[in-house]
Write a structure and sequence with these properties.
Number of helices: 0
Helix content: under 10%
Largest sheet: 7 strands, antiparallel
Shape: elongated
Mean pLDDT: 95
Order of helices and strands: EEEEEEEEE
Structural class: mainly beta
Number of strands: 9
Low-confidence stretches: none
């Protein structure tokens, strides 16, 4: 059984007991959050277009640093920036069809 959820402008294929990093959510660790499922496929192969996915917030964190380097040749212009995107680690508890 799996479902497709949408959060943070992205879609994710999730299964029960799966750990997943999504864009940062406004929820504290230990809280339960619900996502709308745009597609659910059960064990018999039936596909449903409505349902909910229940998940628990495990922790918040930041991804590894990504370096952004700007350079213009012959102009002596160099600029280096770093960026760390915040995320929320969630654990999928249950898929409700």
């Amino acid at each position: 059984m799996y479902a497709v959820i949408k959060t943070g402008g992205k879609q994710y294929k999730v299964e029960p007991e799966m750990l997943l990093r999504v864009e940062k959510l406004n929820a504290n660790p230990g809280e339960t959050v619900e996502f709308e499922a745009s597609l659910i496929r059960d064990d018999e192969g039936n596909i449903k277009t409505e349902g909910k996915v229940e998940a628990e917030v495990v922790k918040h964190g930041k991804h590894k640093k990504v370096l952004v380097f700007h350079f213009k040749r012959k102009k002596n212009y160099k600029k280096l920036n770093g960026h760390r995107q915040p995320y929320t680690l969630i654990k999928i508890k249950e898929i409700k069809a």
